Amino acid sequence: MSELDIESLSKEKRTFAPISDPRAKAYVPDMEAYEALYKRADEDPEGFWAERAKELVTWFSPWEKTLEYDMHKPEIKWFAGGKLNVSYNCLDRHLENGRRNKAAIIWQGEPEEDVKVYTYQMLHTEVCRFANVLKAKGVKKGDRVALYLPMIPELAIAMLACARIGAIHSIVFAGFSAVSLQNRIQDSAAKVVVTADAVLRAGRTIPLKPNADEAMKKCPSVDHCIVVNRAGLEVPMQEGRDCWWHECTHADGITDVCEPEPMDAEDILFILYTSGSTGKPKGVVHTTGGYLTYAAHTTQWVFDVTDNDVYWCTADVGWITGHSYIVYGPLCLGATSLMFEGVPSWPGPDRFWQVVEKFKVNIFYTAPTVVRALMREGVDWTRKHDISSLRLLGSVGEPINPEAWMWYHTYIGAGTKPIVDTWWQTETGGILISALPYATTLKPGSATKPLPGVDAAIVRADGSLAGPNEGGHLLIRKPWPGMLRGVYGNPERYKSTYFQRFPGMYESGDGARVDDDGYFWIMGRLDDVINVSGHRMGTAEVESALVSHEAVAEAAVVGMPHAIKGESIYAYVTLKTGIDESEDLRKALRAWVRTEIGPIATPEVIQFTEGLPKTRSGKIMRRVLRKIAAGVYDDFGDTSTLADPGVVQDLIEGKKDLTGN
Ligand code: PRX
């Protein structure tokens, strides 16, 4: 994020006292309760988490030790030896506890008339069937299954089916390209790929299976591909490898009876790839018992989901938010989770509010980028619908600027509904810092305070504790059940990325400060990761995509402030000798990045340049590039180590020529 945004956050002084829960049912009803719980969890973390794990999760057999850990090694085990099954917890037990015929998933497709409701019983039946299909395809406990699907119920069904038989799912967001999918399948050596013929998006039908076909050409680990018919497209099916979902789930011998596999608490539940500061995305590993406990716990306390609520998280299941807060958290609690296939802007900018009105949504969780985009369309769109069913709003993925927060509060929350600004990451499995809806006084732009059991601290580069209002590295000093347990196939990277620089503590990669009231203000990433519309993108990833193009000699990518997306991608590109700069080449490079990574990685600006600001030792001075991209042409700091200081002026001229400012 830009310095300017940080500035605007630090000037924010407004506060909003909590309202009392109209139903008097809140799990954490006031600040006193929060303080007591925080103290309890701090003094006796094992007792606190053991209680939560017993209350929220059904265990086939108890664990031997609540927590064993060494954050230096690192090695973290929660509830080891305990046996459970995630799909049992999300489905079977609700068949006996009065929720059998309750809606588990309400699915709203992109076309208005496409609605499906799965009761817990119906979802159970579909999950068991698909689990049997996976078994019939030779999938065993511990095998990896790649899910490359749009936001359709089959995605949730496939996740739970994997969990049922102990297979590890690796979901690849359907907006990623064939190359990205291929890299992820190869890294995890997935045996089966589940995909669809197409994605429906903003009125268009975008073929998906061709990407999977392209990827699978170079993935010898894949034996089978199962294809959901979403759009009725003709797709080539490879004999022996490919089959249609609707056919294989009803093939001879496939029943709807499938016993859940007892899993150890520390068996892997899923892998989810996320961007880091080096070129290759890493497979974040989450395990079974701790993750499920944490997802359910935070869904319950932060979103205050109760049995009668309709709860809607607008994320895509391809990201961690969808894993924890569309599928695992809500279903473990026996809640009703709304799953939406469409986008906020189509067919009109009132689509979200129309969906809220249609299903009388009570709890609504979205990203600041969505709020900013809708804010720009004007408030009349929100007034077209009765959204008075809403009682709680959430935000995630990037810092929410106070202006967007106020708009969300005033127009969506009628000036009275609590907003929970939730800070967390793919690696954390669930929310770590957030308001509790009926307890916390809110400050627009602050994620407020760590949840009970979360030991967050801000430290300086030398590891000492930062003082009040001093920006520093956001670290977590004690383990929590939802934390990652590894980087798939790469223990070295697990240690060096998260536990090395500040030994014995988890390094989030974010900068933050804590104000005089103990409120956390997240300032954004401190590493070479940019946050585009709440999606994490490694600058190195985009750079390596650019340099793999035949015309490019060198590339440097930085984030630049963007009014709607938060940040967007700015690429400085040096062409090979003899290649001419042109608008066509710029277009071709954009298209190239889309094919190499996916549309979310498309550079907003590509500036051709003769040279990059490098130190004499050859290191690119990125802060100079970030400033120029943001249109800030002074205060570059110490540039005396640059090999050729003249490059800076050339870059500024080039930027002005390109963008006019
Ligand atoms: O920089 C933080 C930002 O998103 C990053 C994590 O991205 P990802 O792993 O994709 O997970 C996104 C959804 C949990 C963080 O390092 N971030 C996330 N939530 C917030 C946030 N920044 C500020 N405020 C938040 N509420």
Automatic annotation (TrEMBL):
Catalytic activity entry: acetate + ATP + CoA = acetyl-CoA + AMP + diphosphate
EC number: 6.2.1.1
Annotated positions binding CoA: R201, A202, G203, R204, T321, S533, R594
Cofactor(s) the protein needs: Mg(2+)
Boundaries of every AMP-dependent synthetase/ligase domain copy: 98-486
Domain Acetyl-coenzyme A synthetase N-terminal: 34-90
This protein's record includes keyword Magnesium: yes
GO cellular component term, pick one: cytosol
InterPro entries for the chain: Ac_CoA_lig, ACAS_N, AMP-bd_C, AMP-bd_C_sf, AMP-binding_CS, AMP-dep_synth/lig_dom, ANL_N_sf
Keywords: Acetylation, ATP-binding, Ligase, Magnesium, Metal-binding, Nucleotide-binding
Binding site for Mg(2+): V547, H549, V552
Enzyme class: ligase
Role according to the record: Catalyzes the conversion of acetate into acetyl-CoA (AcCoA), an essential intermediate at the junction of anabolic and catabolic pathways. AcsA undergoes a two-step reaction. In the first half reaction, AcsA combines acetate with ATP to form acetyl-adenylate (AcAMP) intermediate. In the second half reaction, it can then transfer the acetyl group from AcAMP to the sulfhydryl group of CoA, forming the product AcCoA.
Full protein name: Acetyl-coenzyme A synthetase
